[in-house]
Amino acid sequence: MRFFLPKENGFFTLFKKINDAQKEIAQLLKDFASHFPDGDEYEKKAKDIERQADAVAHEIIDTLNRTFITPFDREDIYLLTNELDDIVDLIENVIHNVGVYAVISKREEFDQFADLIIEASQALGKLLDHFQELKKTDLLTKSKIYIHELEDKGDEIFCKGLHTLFTNEKDARTLIQWKDILEDLENVMDKYQKVSDIIESIVVKTS
Question: Are 118 and 27 in contact (CB under 8 A)?
């Protein structure tokens, strides 16, 4: 029976690993914004991080399938894993698409989103560092509220960016390229908010 019993720290250790991947790729996006559009090196690094995150996600699901007793609901473990992995996937996709679309000139919204994503990444990192306690604390509440505020700012940047894009951009190809990139960046911020909501829900249910 020992095989089927969970190592209490096992899932949390894996969540920290996938959290490390999201922090690393968020910083990579920020660095890429500073060197835009020289993206070959960044695209390769982003793909490497994305593969690492996928490997951890698969390890979590495999562990989940082999574990009889889990520290919290199985559905929540699955959901949290996938949403964290989605953050990494979306950021990798942004960096990848800049290269695929052969984008040359950078829009200011790219820098603005890169800054927001770094802040959200750091706030989420704090949440996950204390997640194992499974207690509702001031840090959890403040971090969640802060991430929601950042997501609101992301919505504003996205809406203003789209308005400016459709008002001023005459080249259809450029318009399509940047609409796609901005949508992915806005979706990254949505994912940060969703992960913070999931963490709060888990803590409330288990505390």
Answer: yes
Q: Domain 2-206 - what CATH class?
A: mainly alpha
C-beta neighbour count of 203 within 10 angstroms: 21
* Type of residue numbered 189: M
The ranges assigned to domains in the chain are: 2-206
Helix runs in 35-137, H state only: 40-66, 74-100, 108-129
Cβ neighbours of 70 (radius 10 Å):
16
Distance CA 72, CA 134 (A): 9
Say how far apart CA 92 and CA 156 lie, in whole Å: 23
Task: Tell me how far apart the alpha carbons of residues 35 and 38 are, in angstroms, rounded to a whole number.
Answer: 6
- Which DSSP state fits 2? G
Would the pLDDT of 13 be above 60? yes
pLDDT of residue 146: 97
- Calpha distance 144→151 (Å, rounded): 11
The per-residue pLDDT of the chain, averaged, comes to 92
Q: Rounded to the nearest 5 degrees, what angle is found at the Cα of 147, between the Cα atoms of 106 and 184?
A: 35
